[in-house]
Structure formats: structure tokens, C-alpha cells
Specification:
2 copies of one chain form a homodimer.
Chain A: H1 12-25, E1 34-35, H2 37-44, H3 48-60, E2 64-67, E3 71-74, H4 79-103, H5 106-124, H6 131-145, H7 149-156, H8 159-168, H9 177-190, H10 194-206, H11 212-218
Antiparallel strand pairs in A: 1-3, 2-3
Helix pairs in contact in A: 1-3, 2-3, 4-6, 4-8, 4-10, 5-6, 5-9, 6-7, 9-10
The structure holds a DNA duplex.
Chain lengths: 225, 225
DNA sequence: TATACCATACTTGTATACAAGTGCACCATA
DNA sequence: TATGGTGCACTTGTATACAAGTATGGTATA
């Protein structure tokens, strides 16, 4: 597992959680990998207690499977889980952007505008690696504008199921049409144009279409069934 | 806190989680109550470790607030949390019942039919206390039919925010029109009539309309803001 | 050689001890 | 009396020890 250093005020549990999420999402911890509390706590230089609390939390989100007295494992990719996460993302994103159209304020516009402007800047400079983080922030900001930020947070762990499969795509969508999508979404929200906003969300999510068969043929050992 | 005995195979952590959820939902543990890990672990006759794991999980769902080195408290009723839970329930219930119309099978019909028949039986016999449990089961079964049972489970803890406010209503909806709602929903699903099904869900959830002002006037000390 | 068995080295689950920080009550002092 | 300080009894966070179950590999035996 790849580890970095603990933030100053960060608790050992939050540190473990952050490291585990990053490594699962990036597939550094591969689906099916056996993990042991002793081994990981040593790697992170923390004791078993806070590490275990993090593992238990991820097990609740089905990202880790715990078999008592046998071992714990990074969950295999479960198409049903991926589908449920995808379904949930689609219905909440669409409902939330509609609400955002109702709740948008000048401050909200400024928040989204700053983000999109940065995306456009980095895109024009070819600094595309900065865009992923801004992408996530943009979506979160829409939830904030719609006053649904708890929902975003509650769902974020579950979305790892969806996102790690995207990371497995042989050719991740490296064309950055998403930046144009975000600009269009922002304009729709400014115009309080719900219909267009919802269409844009669906189009946007459609870009993340994944070809399960192709991924499975490359990495059959990562899949559950 | 009200405690019962641990199930045979139940882990101490799951036992603590079950007890905490029940007591928070029933308002036996009142909003704002200070809880201490030592005190509760003694009450449940388990050690701090598994109890703490349960508390941490509920803190993630904002049902408990932990202030390090100061204390932990049952979260006050936060209208924003209640609204987000309500919003989430509405959009997922409607999307899921639409999916159920597509995915319904003979087994699914049997599952729902058995449940509704029991509800109707208990209602005719006046054994209305049995209906609450069946109500929850019915909704869960719709998620199962739609193959979205993980979403139901992920959301269930969050819905406690919504449900405990319902329990505070001076006159909880004791009329059992909900049984008729369930019968109508089942028929709509059997007919694959999505439009009617969605209308029924919205009508059904409308019955749980809560009068925040009224509750707040009775128990202002339970509210956050 | 094949098989049954047993020690051993793991695993997670739980209990307990210790660390560090907070707040309050009490007491001394001005 | 009012005020400031100090110790103590709490809190949660973390580390560690122990309990109980599982799998595996080696060994003795048929």
C-alpha cells in the first residue's frame, strides 16, 4: 500500500481511512487482495484500533470483506454494486441539479464560476491532471448550492465502487469534453433551466459509460461473478 | 438506555449498534443527551472497543456528535438533516418503484403479496402494532424487487433522522390508510404502471408530513436551530 | 506412499491499560 | 466577598494484551 504522512491534526483513524480509500480507488490495493490488520497497521505506523475502525467503516460500504478469524480482503468488483452506485448517482445528480436551479444565489454562481474558469484555464494550458480534482469539487459544489451536501458525503464512499471501475477502463475518457459539460451545466443553472440541466447531467454521466466486458476480459480475476 | 440481550451469534459491536439505533429512534435516548463510552459499555456489559466502533459509525451518519476529550452526545434534531433524508427518500423511492415495475417477476409479486395480505389481516383484526414492522419490510421488498437492496441498506441509518421526528409527532398518523396505499402500489407494480406507482409513492410519503413548528413548540430543547 | 493428526502461526474480536486534553469544584489569597 | 489557581475526575484517542477460531505444514502411523 502507498502511504504518505499523517496530517498534523488528523486522527490515526481518519488517516487510515484516507489511505485505504485512495489505495482502493487507485487500484494500488487490487480487488481480492488479502489485507491484515497487523500488516496494515505496521505499514501505516499506527496501532490496530484506529486502523480497525477504518476497516469496519469500509466493510459497511462493501469495499472490504471481513471473514472473522480467516481474513479480510479488498472486495472484488461486483457488477451489482457498480450498477447500484451508478443508479444512485444518476437519480441524485439529476434531482439535485434541479434543486440547484431553484436555490441558486449569487454566491453559488461565483462558487461554480470560479471552479469552471479554473478548469478552462488548466485545459487551455494542457494541465489536465488538475482537472480531476476540480471535477469532483464542481459536482460537490452543485450539491452545496442545492443544500444537499450531506447526501453527497454519505454517497461518496459508495461511489468508489463506480469510480475504481472507471480507473480500470483501458482508455479512460481522456478527452476533456467534461469541461464543456460543466460550463453548460453552470449556464443552465444560472438560467434556472431545469430541463436542460437534467439533460446535461444524463449526457455527462453517459460519458463515463464503461465497457464491462472489455475490462473483464483484461482482468477477469478482479471480478466477483 | 433500554437494553435487551445479545443474540447468540451477534458480535458485541452489532449488538451495540442495534441497541443504539433502537434507543435513538424511539427517543429513549433523547436528542442532546450526553453519552459516555464507559457508561454505555457498562450498561451493555461489553467493553469499550466494540461499543466505540458502533458509536463511530453512528457519528458518521450524524446521529451522534463526538467532541474529543469533551464528550459525545445524541445529535439534536437538525432540520437540514431531516430535510435531506426526506429528499433522498422521495427521489430514491420513486426511482426504485419505477425500476420495480420493469423488474417485477412472479416471485416478486408473491413476496409483496404475502406482505400486503398480512398487513390487511392484522388491520382487520385491529393488531395494528404488527403493521409498522411489515410497513418497513414492504418498502424494503420493493427495493429488493428492483435489485436495489444495497441502496436501501446504505440509506437506512440516515433515515433515522426522518423517522425519529415522526415518532415525536403528537399524533402519529394512526390511521392506517398506509395499508391501502401498499395494496395500490402492489397493483400498480403488477400492472407495470409506472405513472400511477410514482403518484402513489408521493401520496404515501405525503402522509408522513410533519409539522415541525408544532413539534418544536412542544420540545424546543430537542432542536438544533 | 497415503492418511490422519497435531502443533503452530496466522486471522479477527474483545478487553484493558495508558495518553492527552477538558472542565469543574474547591481552596487559598487578596 | 471576589478571584485566581490547582488538582482531580471525567472525556475520547490510541496502544497492547488476550481470547477464540482457522488453515497449513510437518510428522507419525498404517
Amino acid at each position: 500500500m502507498i502511504t504518505d504522512t499523517k496530517y498534523p491534526r488528523e486522527t490515526a483513524r481518519d488517516y487510515a481511512l484516507r489511505m485505504l480509500k485512495e489505495n482502493i480507488l487507485s487500484l494500488e490495493l487490487k480487488p481480492g487482495t488479502a489485507i491484515s490488520e497487523n500488516e496494515l497497521s505496521a505499514a501505516l505506523k499506527i496501532s490496530r484500533t484506529p486502523l480497525r475502525e477504518a476497516i469496519v467503516e469500509l466493510a459497511k460500504a462493501y469495499l472490504i470483506e471481513i471473514y472473522p478469524q480467516k481474513g479480510s480482503f479488498i472486495s472484488l468488483i461486483d457488477p451489482k454494486m457498480v450498477e447500484e452506485a451508478r443508479f444512485l448517482r444518476r437519480i441524485t445528480d439529476t434531482a439535485v441539479i434541479e434543486t440547484a436551479c431553484d436555490e441558486i444565489t449569487d454566491e453559488g454562481i461565483a462558487l461554480l464560476e470560479d471552479n469552471v474558469a479554473l478548469q478552462e484555464y488548466y485545459l487551455s494550458k494542457g494541465m489536465t491532471d488538475k482537472i480531476f480534482e476540480l471535477d469532483n469539487q464542481f459536482h460537490k459544489s452543485i450539491y452545496v448550492v442545492a443544500k444537499k451536501d450531506i447526501i453527497y458525503e454519505i454517497h461518496s464512499t459508495l461511489m468508489i465502487h463506480f469510480d475504481r471501475v472507471r480507473n480500470l477502463s483501458v482508455e479512460t475518457v481522456k478527452d476533456f469534453k467534461v469541461v464543456g459539460d460543466h460550463r453548460a451545466m453552470l449556464e443552465a443553472i444560472k438560467n434556472k433551466d431545469k430541463k436542460t440541466a437534467v439533460e446535461l447531467v444524463n449526457k455527462h454521466l453517459g460519458r463515463y459509460q464503461i465497457d464491462e466486458k472489455e475490462i473483464r476480459s483484461h482482468r477477469p480475476e478482479y471480478f466477483k461473478a
